[in-house]
Amino acid sequence: MAKIYVETVGVIILIDMGTDISLASTHEMIVLKDGEETTWDSEVYQDNYLKYTTQDGDLDVAGTYIIHPNLEFTNGWSGVTKPVSFKVHPKWKQ
Question: Phi and psi (nearest 5°) for 83?
């Protein structure tokens, strides 16, 4: 994966869920960045992936971003799954 820099827009984040999540009624990414939690509404991609494309303001601080996929199904199961993380680098760092 290429380095991701602060304020980059259009980064596609794909999380392989390892199972079919196409029937999830809720699919979002709970993101911890700079000690604060935010939620990114995501979409199901090719049945097994959670997908989000970063928008203006999403990658506004350098540091490690931790994502907990959050899903809810009509059969009653809901919750977060194993977290993933990535680094966002300052603009002028090589």
Answer: -75, 155
Neighbours of 3 (CB within 10 A): 11
SS3 33: strand
Mean pLDDT, the chain, rounded, equals 93
Tally of structural domains, the chain: 1
pLDDT per residue over 9-47, tens digit each?
999 999 999 999 999 999 999 999 999 999 999 999 999
Amino acid at residue number 1: M
83 token code pair: 């977290």
Q: Is 12 within the bounds of a domain? A: yes
Report the DSSP beta bridge partners of residue 66. Answer: 32, 85
